[in-house]
Amino acid sequence: MTAQLNPRGDVAVLVPAAGAGVRLGPGRPKALRLLAGEPLLVHAVRRVATASVRSIVVAAPAAEVAEVRELLAPIAPVTVVAGGETRQDSVACALAAVPADVEIILVHDAARALVPPELVESVAAAIRAGAPAAVPVLPVVDTIKRVSAEGVVTATVDRAELRSVQTPQGFRRAVLTAAHAAGSDALTDDAGLVEQQGVPVTCVPGSEFALKVTRPFDLALAEHLLTVAPEPAAPRTLIA
User: Fold this and answer.
1) Phi, psi of 153, rounded to the nearest 5 degrees
2) To bridge 68 with a disulfide, which of 44, 60, 217, 224 should be the other Cys (CB 3.0-4.6 Å)?
3) What are the φ and ψ backbone dihedral angles of 206, each rounded to 5 degrees?
4) pTM of the model
C-alpha cells in the first residue's frame, strides 16, 4: 500500500533530486544511487512523509521523470517534475507545483536519505510558530583553519559560532518565493538566498542521522546507520 499524505496538512516538501553527484563516483544521478538495495530518493521520500505533510514534490532529472514517478508510486502520492540546470532551478520548478494554499515549504536534499521524521516535524513546527525561515544545525566539532591558495594556514577560526547546516530547511512560502525571485547567485542552499534578503533564519537542533551522502564513504556509513535507524514502518497512513 502507498502511504497517504495528510489532506489537511499544512506542509509541502520539495526534494531537488536532479543532480549528477559526481563526487559519489560515476554512475546514475545521485538520488537514484542504491542504499541497502533502494535508491536514496526512496529512503528520503519515505522519511519526509510525516503527519504534517500534504504534498511532496520531487524535481528529477529531465530524462528520468517517468522512471522516478514509477519508482515513487508505491511509496507515496508524490508529484514529480523535471528539474533544472542548478539546484536553485530545481527548487523553483518544484515550488511552482505546490498547491496554492500550502504556506509552509520544506526543502530537503535527497542525499540526506536517513533524515529522522521527527526532524522534519521540528523544522515545520518552527515555521508554524512564526519563524520566516528555519534550518537544522549541528555544532562544528573539528578545528577549522583558514588556508591560503598556496596551502598555508592563515588563521584558526573560532568554531564557537559555527554550525553545520542540514536539511530540511523550512520557509514561509512567501519568503522562499521572494528569495528565489530576487536571488541571482548560485548558492548551495535556500537559506542562503533568504539571508541575502535580510530575512532572519532560526536554527533548530539537527541530527547526526541527517548526514549528506556525498562520497562513497558517506554511502557506506549510511548503510551502517540503517542497521540502528531502520526506515519508518511502511505502509504509513497519515490522517489528521
Assistant:
1) -65, 130
2) 60
3) -90, -165
4) 0.91
